[in-house]
Amino acid sequence: MKKSASKGKRVMDYPKYTPGSKLGAEVRKKANSLSDSERGNLFERGMQIIYGAAGKAKAACSRH
């Protein structure tokens, strides 16, 4: 039986803010200020990116 390698000490001291957490807060703030029509347009664009053509996005989308 082989002895597994030591994993070492884990880092438990994380920074309060990181570039990712700051960016996430900014994106959430902008997303919360969208109107219903802007939110719908962005949702449709996202579905088109995921599914390709607009017809497929509308067929797969249960909101419209």
Shape annotation: elongated
How many strands, what sense, and barrel or not for the largest sheet?
Answer: none
Please estimate the helix content.
Answer: 55-70%
Sequence of secondary-structure elements: HHH
- The number of distinct β-strands equals 0
Distance between the termini: 60 Å
Cα radius of gyration in angstroms: 21 Å
Low-pLDDT parts are none
Short description:
This protein is an all-alpha fold and 64 residues long.
Give an overview in words.
The chain is mainly alpha-helical. It has a domain at 36-64. The chain is built from three helices and no strands. Helix 2 crosses helix 3. The longest helix has 16 residues, at 36-51. It is elongated and about 60 Å long.
Name the descriptors:
0% strand, 3 helices, mainly alpha
Describe how the helices and strands are arranged:
Layout: H1 19-32, H2 36-51, H3 54-60
Helix pairs in contact: 2-3
